[in-house]
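Q: What residues go here?
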């Protein structure tokens, strides 16, 4: 697939920034969203309250949706973190670099959201169950929520790291995904985990298993 120049430029700018943005994580997030004109929102789904940053200015135009990576999942090789909010939200960096009329950034379950507002949040959802069916359902519901604000328009879907896996799994069950992009994507977690000699994730769906269902979608994997 040949990327439109605007989207390619947005991705290039974002990728060039990934290693160079410094400072406090909250300050970095605030600066990113303010400069990009993104507004904080929350979306209630059956399982999780999801955080989002949104700019929708043209309901008659397609919408670009970005899904965050796994975030701060492990404190060390053996101990999961207590909060998966990323210290450097690279998926948000990609969204902030996109100058399209309609841009939505979706955090993963339990990221950027108070744990008290998410009773189901537990480390399993950012470790072994990070791609569980209920997680995919939650992100898909959020995408449908924002798609309803641009009725009848196509969706350009981008996922970073583990968010790439979710993007593929969601694209396999929707009919409105016009293009699919992944950045540093984990697209076969069984193979990745075997390579790194860490535990498999039998409670998570694996995007490699839906490759045939997304084969018709124009896609590129960075």
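A:
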């Amino acid at each position: 697939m040949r990327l439109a120049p605007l989207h390619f430029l947005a991705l290039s700018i974002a990728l060039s920034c990934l290693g160079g943005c410094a400072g406090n994580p909250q300050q970095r997030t605030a600066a990113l969203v303010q400069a990009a004109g993104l507004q904080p929102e929350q979306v209630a789904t059956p399982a999780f309250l999801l955080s989002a940053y949104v700019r929708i200015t043209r309901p008659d135009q397609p919408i670009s949706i970005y899904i965050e990576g796994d975030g701060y999942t492990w404190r060390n090789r053996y101990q999961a973190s207590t909060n998966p909010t990323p210290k450097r939200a690279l998926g948000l960096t990609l969204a902030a670099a996109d100058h399209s009329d309609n841009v939505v950034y979706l955090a993963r379950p339990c990221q950027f959201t108070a744990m008290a507002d998410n009773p189901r949040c537990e480390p399993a959802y950012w470790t072994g169950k990070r791609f569980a069916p209920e997680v995919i359902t939650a992100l898909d519901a959020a995408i449908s929520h924002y798609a309803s604000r641009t009725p009848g328009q196509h969706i350009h879907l981008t996922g970073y790291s583990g968010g790439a896996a979710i993007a593929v799994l969601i694209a396999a069950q929707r009919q409105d995904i016009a293009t699919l992009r992944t950045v540093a994507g984990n697209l076969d977690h069984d193979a990745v985990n075997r390579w790194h000699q860490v535990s498999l994730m039998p409670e998570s769906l694996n995007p490699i298993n839906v490759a045939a269902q997304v084969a018709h979608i124009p896609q590129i994997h960075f």
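A: Context that may help when evaluating the design: Residues 133-147 form the longest helix (15 residues). Residues 1-6, 18-22 have pLDDT under 50 and may be disordered.
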